[in-house]
Specification:
This protein is an all-alpha fold and 435 residues long. It has 16 helices and no strands. α6 runs antiparallel to α11 and α9 packs parallel to α12.
Length: 435
């Protein structure tokens, strides 16, 4: 009996028994890992050319609006045409932009503006691939396997975020930018294999031509779909008030010590939490009240962020005291506790993401699923950037520990209030999904 219970705790791998899904998942994992190489390499490349951290930060800012527009339009295309074709065309644009980056690096013709333009194109095309691929998954596997498929996505995300940036730094240092971009080009071939071998997947039900009316149709559906709408709002709340990533460099340099190594450890701990929660996600697929699951997962997320803030506060107050007066070595005890808190936060966020993804793919009709996935990309892209603005601004006027501490409390309070005002969300039943 203990063995059975132990096995049931591990993630459900049954989606990988569906050949089309398995190929798509493996291809997406390889392409995502390569994409992380390019994202980090471009940031390092821009800094090498300019020596300006503001120029590096502007890469993400410049690409935000095109990514949002592409995500929304890509969702409309996914609801109007064969989704396999839409994804292949968008993947081809991503492939071409990365190949051009590699060519420019090999010939020494790269400039800052080329890096900006190609990064924007790459990010926009990727948004279309993501929106379309998410709309494809429910057509490949049975509904009861959607939570397991979302958990597998958590595994790939954890691997990409943990391994990608570190590998990119090593490759750039050892082999240079041209080789790093070229490796991404090769890894992207896996995505083409996953997409090319899919059958034609046209949207089911009434098809609305891509355009303003299609977008309005999506918004009208979202206004009626209180469960889907609330999960978007809850995610924005969690990411706005509980996303301290922008503070990590300063925390590593000023508060905890250890500089870039500490910053990397803090970032990797979130990804580690995502990966571990996916590996032990077996029980998640058996939960029917997924709205309640989202609520509780975000409570844990907020509490973990508040705990992270408390650890930073303790470090600011001098705990633990240095062995030697004036010692500026890394505060290892505080760093260890901070990484544990962030790992818990990453795991809780992933559990919430599994439920949210499952709810969206099961409860949203196929004919409108692409547009809702496009809107979801806007939420996912916008929330962390609002979080960076909140954390950076508040830390400027207070202290580094204050934004995560008060933010975690705000997350818990707002989520409790919003769910209480929408009691239908808690009673959401995965066996009878209603948007």
């Amino acid at each position: 009996m203990a063995t059975c219970l132990s096995r049931s705790s591990f993630m459900d791998l049954r989606p990988l028994r569906v050949p089309a899904f398995a190929r798509l998942w493996i291809g997406s994992l390889l392409a995502g890992l390569g994409g992380q190489l390019t994202v980090v390499a471009v940031m390092l490349h821009v800094f090498a050319l300019t020596g300006d951290t503001f120029a590096v930060a502007m890469i993400a800012v410049a690409g935000l609006l095109p990514m949002i527009v592409a995500g929304l339009y890509g969702g409309m295309l996914a609801d109007a045409f064969d989704r396999r074709t839409v994804a292949l065309i968008a993947a081809t644009v991503t492939f071409a932009s990365t190949a051009l980056l590699a060519a420019l690096a090999w010939t020494g013709a790269e400039t800052v503006w080329w890096l900006y333009v190609l990064s924007i194109v790459n990010s926009a095309a990727n948004s279309i691939v993501l929106a379309t691929r998410s709309a494809i998954v429910p057509r490949l596997i049975p509904r009861e396997l959607l939570p397991a498929a979302a958990a597998l996505q958590g595994v790939s995300t954890g691997v990409m975020v943990m391994a990608g940036p570190a590998l990119a730094g090593v490759l750039v240092a050892v082999a240079g930018y041209a080789w790093t971009y070229s490796i991404d080009v090769v890894l992207m071939l896996g995505l083409f294999l996953g997409l090319w071998t899919l059958p034609r997947i046209r949207p089911e039900g009434a098809v609305v031509r891509a355009g303003i009316e299609s977008l309005r149709d999506g918004w009208r559906f979202l206004r009626r779909a209180s469960n889907i709408r609330l999960q978007y709002i809850l995610d924005i709340v969690a990411m706005t008030f509980g996303q301290p990533l922008a503070l990590f460099p300063a925390i590593g340099a000023v508060l905890l010590g250890g500089g870039a190594i500490t910053t990397g450890a803090l970032t990797a701990s979130i990804a580690a939490g995502v990966l571990l929660s996916s590996l032990f996600s077996g029980p998640i697929g058996r939960v029917r009240r997924q709205g309640l699951g989202i609520e509780r997962a975000i409570y844990v997320y907020g509490a973990a962020m508040a705990l992270f803030g408390l650890v930073l506060l303790a470090a600011a107050l001098g705990w633990p005291a240095p062995a030697i007066v004036g010692d500026s070595s890394p505060n290892l005890a505080a760093i260890a506790l901070a990484t544990v808190a962030l790992a818990i936060a990453g795991g809780a966020d992933n559990v919430s993401a599994i439920y949210r993804s499952t709810m969206m793919q099961a409860a949203v009709p196929d004919a409108i699923r692409g547009r809702l996935q496009g809107i979801f990309i806007v939420v996912v892209a916008g929330g962390p950037r609002l979080g960076a603005l909140y954390a950076g601004t508040l830390a400027t006027f207070t202290a580094l520990w204050f934004p995560p501490l008060i933010g975690g409390m705000i997350v818990i309070a707002l989520v409790g209030l919003l769910v209480r005002l929408n009691p239908r969300f808690r009673s959401y039943d995965a066996d009878h999904p209603e948007p």
